[in-house]
Amino acid sequence: MTLQELNAELLDCRRCPRLVEWREKVAREKRRAYRDLAYWGKPVPGFGDPHARVFVVGLAPGAHGSNRTGRQFTGDASGNFLYPALYRFGFASQPNSVSRADGLTLDDLYTAPVCRCAPPDNRPTPQEMANCQPYLEREIGIIQPRIFVALGKIAFDVIKSILHVPPGISFSHGALYSFKSGSTDCWLLASYHPSRQNTQTGRLTAAMFDRIWQTVRDLLERIADG
């Protein structure tokens, strides 16, 4: 299966009635600031380099962010914090992400969420995440990345489960774990999610986030050196 085939299947997904109702309701009613814009209102595909060695996993689309724009971390506060960092470290072609037509591209990095539809209160249920997990599993199988960056504990736990990472590891910001995928060396790196709640309270600062991406760059150099 190709990413194009996977995304075509994803866009037709209606496995979670609560999420389908919510994403479409938000797209109809809109936020006042965006009342003249067309909302995406569908499952949001992954975004980035299909040959990426770095795979970034988030939680779910924001109701008026990705659910509006149709692209990961685009049009919301999380993206306004994430993409400048990716730009600083050479993973993004520009620091801003406002729409699918803004020209942004990612190099050696791909991003996708655990849950592809915007959930009420940004809280998908365990069953909704389980319904969505096969899409993430197949994406990982297609791309075959070496480095996984989990933005938040939920993403961290889901990636641990999918990749069968050995037990006994726990989430903390900056924690780095190595594991084998077959005979291939891979890594799982944990970070606080760049949500408004974390960045505006100082739980996650730009300096802390930069250290995450510097770690990723260091790992890529290690891979290149063999």
Can you walk through the features of this model?
With 226 residues, the chain is an alpha/beta fold. It has one domain: Uracil-DNA glycosylase-like domain (Uracil-DNA Glycosylase, subunit E). Helix content is 40%, strand content 14%. It is built from eight helices and six strands. The protein has helices at 3-11, 17-29, 66-69, 77-88, 126-143, 153-163, 196-199, 206-224, and strands at residues 47-48, 54-58, 109-113, 147-151, 176-181, 184-191. A six-stranded mixed β-sheet has the order 1-3-2-4-6-5, with helices on both faces. Strand 5 and strand 6 form a beta hairpin. Helix 4 (77-88) packs across helix 8. The longest helix is centred in the last third of the chain and has 19 residues, at 206-224.
What's the SSE blueprint?
Blueprint (H helix, E strand, L loop, with lengths): L2 H9 L5 H13 L17 E2 L5 E5 L7 H4 L7 H12 L20 E5 L12 H18 L3 E5 L1 H11 L12 E6 L2 E8 L4 H4 L6 H19 L2
Parallel strand pairs: 2-3, 2-4, 4-6
Antiparallel strand pairs: 1-3, 5-6
Offer a quick outline of the entry.
It is built from eight helices and six strands. The protein is of the alpha/beta class.
- Radius of gyration over alpha carbons? 17 Å
Global shape: globular
Tally of contiguous helical segments: 8
Q: Biggest sheet: strands side by side, in what order?
A: 1-3-2-4-6-5
Number of strands: 6
- Report the CATH superfamily: Uracil-DNA glycosylase-like domain
| First-to-last CA distance | 29 Å
CATH topology: Uracil-DNA Glycosylase, subunit E
Low-confidence stretches: none
Q: How is the main sheet built?
A: 6 strands, mixed
Order of helices and strands: HHEEHHEHEHEEHH
What structural class do the secondary elements suggest? alpha/beta
The CATH class turns out to be Alpha Beta
How much beta, percentage-wise? 5-15%
Helix content: 25-40%
